[in-house]
């Protein structure tokens, strides 16, 4: 069993990022970006990257890490699986978009 999974909002966002990158920069860069994202998810699940707590001002529990120009947000489930809940660009209103993605408040 995989130690992580993408929730629907994160999966949809990853697809949007892939299609945007494909359109703007071509298939090689789009594939590299996607491969790097999945490598990061594995590293998160294996705790090979720092688990930084989401700032309290976001009003969402969980962790985050930076990947290129995006931030990946996740929660640890009771079965110890990592749930990737959102992937947001650094220029987005992250607090609002994160709350929307996880359904908090």
Describe the structure.
With 105 residues, the protein is of the alpha+beta class. The chain has a single domain (4-102), classed as YaeB-like fold (2-Layer Sandwich), CATH 3.30.2310. The chain contains three helices and five strands; from the N terminus they run E-H-H-E-E-E-E-H. Helix 1 runs antiparallel to helix 2 (27-45).
Question: What is the strand and helix layout of this fold?
Answer:
Layout: E1 4-6, H1 8-25, H2 27-45, E2 52-53, E3 63-67, E4 70-76, E5 82-89, H3 94-102
Parallel strand pairs: 1-5
Antiparallel strand pairs: 2-3, 3-4, 4-5
Helix pairs in contact: 1-2
How would you name the oligomeric state of the polypeptide chains in this document? single chain
Tally of DSSP helical segments: 3
Strand order of the largest sheet: 1-5-4-3-2
Major sheet summary line: 5 strands, mixed
Query: Regarding CATH, which class?
Result: Alpha Beta
Strand content: 15-25%
Number of discrete domains: 1
Number of strands: 5
Shape: globular
CATH homologous superfamily identity: RelE-like
Radius of gyration: 13 Å
**Alpha-beta content class:** alpha+beta
What level of helicity do the residues show? 40-55%
